[in-house]
Amino acid sequence: MQLLSWLDGLKLNSSRRQTKRGALRSVRRRRAGVKLSLETLEDRSMPSFVGPVSYGVAAYPLDMVVGDFNSDGKADLATINDTQLSLLPGNGDGTFGAAQTTAVGSGMRSVAAGDFNGDGRLDLVITSSVTTWNGTIYVTTGSALLLLNNTASPGPVTFQAARSFSTGTNLTPGAVAVGDLNGDGKADVAAVEAGGSNVTVLQGDGAGNLDTARQFAVGSNPVSVAVGDIDGDGRLDLVTANQGSNNLSVLLNGGNDGTRHERGRLRQPRVRRRGRLQPRRPDGPSRDFERHDPDRLGLLGPVLPDRRLCQRAAGPRRRRLRPRPKHLGR
Questions:
Q1: How far apart are CA 210 and CA 208, in angstroms?
Q2: CA proximity to 254, closest of 230, 289, 284
Q3: From CA 289, how far away is CA 260, in angstroms rounded?
Q4: Half-sphere exposure of 271 (CA within 13 A, CB side)
Q5: Residue 154 preceded by cis peptide, ω within 30
Q6: Tens of pLDDT along the chain (330 residues)?
Q7: What angle do CA 181, 68, 62 make, to 5 degrees?
Q8: Would the pTM count as exceeding 0.85?
């Protein structure tokens, strides 16, 4: 009797195992039958633009800048040609009013916006150059033209007469950028010298004036300049694109005290080793261009490409274990 009950138990367990196996197989079959579908998302992430809308400005425009020049919270457009400034007031819906064109100077090349007198309104700075005959030779005089905003809100955008500040003799200023380069809360100007190998810096006094121009060496024939904190030390640095030497020049801001800063050293290129990027140690500390002067800007020398800096970084040393002498045992 006990033998029969034991045999019945074996049959019951066997049927249960078969049932579980069958259920697992059916689940696997259902899972294998599910088809994965891939959906292309590029069309969703790519920006799209409506058709262009053209607005009339002074003939042969050379450069432009966007900003709220009448303090109405709407973006306006300002563009220049060789002698004139055209300003298009924005309506806030992507459209602009008719251009307001005024004569400014001659030989204008580039324009940027910033508040140069601390009144909360955006002003304009325009680079220009004029070549004259002095009786013996032709002399080119470069200038930064400062147009202070005196718009009465609400009302049309108006500027004061241009204030001219020299960028140097026989130097032709080109692209211009605005930023607080010495950390005093006042807008400064940086302009590249077209056809040369310098970037010119003019510091603002916060009252609508610019100090004496100072030149910093960069690559050959710089055609563009940008301002930004490259090394994360809270100070604005300069970057120029050099058409003549086919490279970029990075000038790290060394601060006003002219001392050496750990964060202001020239950064070396990072090299790849075993799938990981490792910085190569600099051969020595960097130095500032200027000596101690609390009112002047210190910029470190430009970082230019150097094949020697792209050498393979040395890996960490491995300690070799020496065999233990036999007479000491294990």
A1: 7
A2: 289
A3: 11
A4: 15
A5: yes
A6: 555 565 566 555 555 555 555 555 555 555 555 666 666 655 566 778 888 999 999 999 999 999 999 999 999 999 999 999 999 999 999 999 999 999 999 999 999 999 999 999 999 999 999 999 989 999 999 999 999 999 987 778 999 999 999 999 888 999 999 999 999 999 999 999 999 999 999 999 999 999 999 999 999 999 999 999 999 999 999 999 999 999 999 999 987 644 333 333 333 333 334 444 444 344 433 333 333 343 456 666 665 544 444 444 444 555 555 565 566 555
A7: 75
A8: no
Task: Report which DSSP code applies to 282.
Answer: P
Work out the burial of residue 290: count CB atoms within 10 Å of its CB; fewer than 13 is exposed, 13-18 middle, 19 or more buried: middle
Identify the residue whose tokens are 């020595």: 284
Bridge-based pairing state of the strands 163-169 and 76-80 = unpaired
Written as six digits, the tokens of 327 are 């007479």
Q: Kindly give the pairing relationship between strand 76-80 and strand 63-67.
A: antiparallel
Q: What's the full length of the chain, in residues?
A: 330
| DSSP β-bridge partners for residue 278 | 271
What separation in angstroms does the CA of 16 have from each of 24, 26, 29, 105, 274?
Answer: 12, 15, 20, 97, 55
Q: For residue 104, give both structure tokens.
A: 């400014």
Round the CA-based radius of gyration of the chain to a whole number and report it: 34
Q: In the chain, what is the greatest distance between 2 CA atoms, to the nearest angstrom?
A: 135
Percent of the chain that is helix, strand, coil (3-state, to 5)? 15, 35, 50
DSSP H stretches of helix in 221-317: none
How far is Cα 290 from Cα 254, in angstroms, rounded to an integer? 9
